[in-house]
Amino acid sequence: MMAHNARGQVSEARSRLLETATRLFYTEGIHSVGIDRIVAEAKVTRATLYRHFPGKDDLVVAYLQAVHQAERDQVGKVLGSGRTGADILRAIARSIADGIQSAGFRGCAFLNAVAEYPDPEHPVHKAVLAHREWFLRTITDVLAQVGETPPELAGRHFVMLRDGAMAEGCLSDPLEVCDTFLQGVDGILQHRIESGAKTA
Questions:
Q1: Which regions of the protein are recorded as binding DNA (predicted)?
Q2: C-alpha span between 48 and 52 (Å, rounded)
Q3: DSSP 8-state symbol, 128
């Protein structure tokens, strides 16, 4: 839930807190960054932070929801571009590869977060699962437009390739990782196109 000022605008202090937390949580990890550090770098008081986020967990969930919304917006633009299903999937894969090759890349924000919050009942863990369910559903829906066979296995295959590329992108040459990932996506598409041709 967003806090708005008298003019209906999102509070500047809340935005600053969320931007600061996003930067620190992503680059340094969630548990290693304390509330005092966030308050100091966002240049707000502890009272201001607790007015917008009752506790650190609320701030972490808001951080993940902001990352989720940014990804939804990015994918939404591709989905609305009028391209074929195969080209939509390639464009989504390309944007993932671009992220892996960007400066300051530290892996997947959601996989990083769930590693720190393993309890399935924790709100942070649930926020990660909600994002991943949306992503898998979106990819599966796109793959349903390519070929004739059920798309569920191909959707899971794409997500596993993506997860591996996000993890490996921090450990080895991002260019090679992305090349392998994009070739894998092409392989998924080719398999679906060929399977569709055999059943036609």
A1: 34-53
A2: 7
A3: H
Q: Please name which of 89, 95, 52 lies closest in space to residue 38, comparing C-alpha atoms.
A: 52
Widest pairwise Cα distance in the chain: 65
Q: Are the C-beta atoms of residues 169 and 100 closer than 8 Å to each other?
A: yes
Residue 200 pLDDT > 80: no
Tell me the C-alpha distance between 160 and 135, whole Å: 12
pTM confidence score: 0.90
In terms of residue numbers, what domain contains 4? 1-54
Secondary structure element (H or E) that encloses residue 38, with its range: helix 35-42
CATH of the domain at 18: 1.10.10.60
For residue 95, the one-letter residue type is S
One domain for residues 105 and 183: yes
CA dist., res. 64 & res. 57, Å (int): 11
Task: Please tell me the predicted confidence (pLDDT) of residue 195.
Answer: 78
Residue 128 and residue 38 share a domain:
no
| Position 86 pLDDT exceeds 60 | yes
